[in-house]
UniProtKB/TrEMBL annotation:
Protein name: EIF3A factor
One annotated Gene Ontology cellular component of this protein: multi-eIF complex
GO MF assignments: mRNA binding; translation initiation factor activity
UniProt KW keywords: Coiled coil
The species this protein was found in: Bucco capensis
Domain of life from the UniProt record: Eukaryota
Any coiled-coil regions, as ranges: 3-34, 59-149
GO biological process: formation of cytoplasmic translation initiation complex; translation reinitiation
Length: 157
């Protein structure tokens, strides 16, 4: 009987503990919801303030970027105007340089053409000699073969 009472008492305490935890959970839940409901307008205002600050910062940075680009453009134009005075000198220098290099190129090309013509002539002459020698050797070989054939015919007769 005592054991049953103890078990019943334990069950009763367990249920009370669960009930207390459930109530505490509800309180925490209601508290969090209330906190969120209070935070939402604050978060919205903070977001709007941050958006306004970001927009102002962006506009400021865009202004700075535009002014720096304008300054760079002005400097580039000044640099171009300054260098445009040297344009004639540069063109003259380039023309002289190209002319001198062209004469060197033409000289080398002329030398190459001469060597090429000489090499062609020598190779042509060499091939001419080889063909002449080959024809001579072929002529003598055929003549010798003809004589050999005639001798063999004479022997056969």
């Amino acid at each position: 009987f005592i054991m049953a009472k103890q078990v019943e008492q334990l069950e009763k305490e367990k249920k009370e503990l669960q009930e207390r935890l459930k109530n505490q959970e509800k309180k925490i839940d209601y508290f969090e919801r209330a906190k969120r409901l209070e935070e939402i307008p604050l978060i919205k205002t903070a977001y709007e303030e941050q958006r306004v600050r970001d927009m102002e910062l962006w506009e400021q940075q865009e202004e700075e970027r535009i002014t720096t680009l304008q300054l760079e453009r002005e400097k580039a134009l000044e640099h171009k105007n300054r260098l445009s005075r040297m344009l004639e000198d540069r063109d003259l220098f380039e023309a002289r340089l190209k002319a001198s290099r062209r004469t060197v190129y033409e000289d080398k090309l002329k030398q190459f053409q001469e060597r090429l013509a000489e090499e062609r002539r020598s190779r042509l002459e060499e091939r001419k000699k080889q063909r002449k020698e080959e024809r001579r050797i072929t002529y003598y070989r055929e003549k010798e073969e003809e004589e050999q054939r005639l001798r063999e015919e004479q022997l056969l007769k």
